[in-house]
Amino acid sequence: MRLLVLRHFKSKFAKNVILLGSATTLSQLINLAISPVLTRVYTPDEFGYFATFLSVVAILASISTGGYTQAIMLPKKNYTALNLVYLCLLIICIVSFLAYLLLFINYVEIISILQITEVSNLVYLIPLASLALAFYGVVVTFNNRNKEYKDIASAKLSKATFGGIFQVLLGYFGVVSGLIYGYILSLIISSKKMILNIVNKDKKRKISKKRLIVTAYNYRAFPTFTLPNILIDSIRSYGFNVAILMIFTTATLGQYFLATKAVKTPSALIGDSISQVFYQKVSTINKKNLKRFCIKFTLILSIVSLPIFTLIYFFSEYIFVTLFGDGWRLAGEITKALTFWMYFSFISSPLTNIFPVVERQDVGLIYSIAYGVIPFVMIIIPHENILVLIENISYVMSIVSLILIVNILLLLSSKQYE
Fold it and tell me: What's the pTM value of the predicted model, to 2 decimals?
């Protein structure tokens, strides 16, 4: 086993994983280093408002490309991928415009539902932030396709650094919504180099209305199957914040948000970096080698990540109180409760990229529905407090993640992948 791990980490694939994983880890360390300052210039309520804003933005951004973002990795020719990029940008602009109209027409109802009357004017920033986030996802995917891992890593670091600086400065000068403004600015600044890479690949401008229509038709499986999958996953990840707000308080949401920001989100983002390289690998690998590669990948990821999540489980409460103050103890307790779910999700999330590669998005959709529905069903059931709720959800979702891993490996056991 030791030789297997060493040999795997000498491969080019592993080096790319380490590069993106290191950049993501460093960016999260930057966020973690800044967080003790943010918790002293912003209140739990202001963290709660930011969590609400970010949740709506992320859900809107998830549908803003029609699901075509994931298709960018698949074409053999780069000009087809560029057509997909421009198709995504067109859909993003249309969705953002429609979002502005919706907000203008239903302004009062929306701020009432989101319970953000104290910062109601910021609702008009939702389409802009959604556009920036969706655009960021598109350019990252295209750069991933072209193996521009250094630029992706640089973007991650820029996003964390500039975002943190803006948020601290705005908070210091008393800007209540500094967390939101800093987030939007970080998305815009960090995309610059990756956008230049797209421009350099598109010097011949092989884009036309006809090509966009043909491309949209050829990859229609993505808005049909992948888009619902992405939307459900986004609602599962971010809609839960809104549900917490409606059942508990804005301050409680702020505690939960800090827990996910400090620990759960970093682990998910590191997993996302691994997923980017994993997706590129399984998109090009010989199908007969898929099963062997995925088994080895799953074993190594399980072994490497286990000590990290063990430390999180035993020391999260102490770490939160030490770094953020005794007022954030609940956030540490929530993090401990999330550990089992974080561990199994960290392993299973990259493997879900297998579904579009083997053209079984329908199976992926079923699991996305389960991931989306179960937490919301459980939150409807009365719980003593948010900590008990999170513990119960964590145990159930850990079991679901294990079933997903086994199902993917069984799917690859069919004759066509052996």
Answer: 0.73
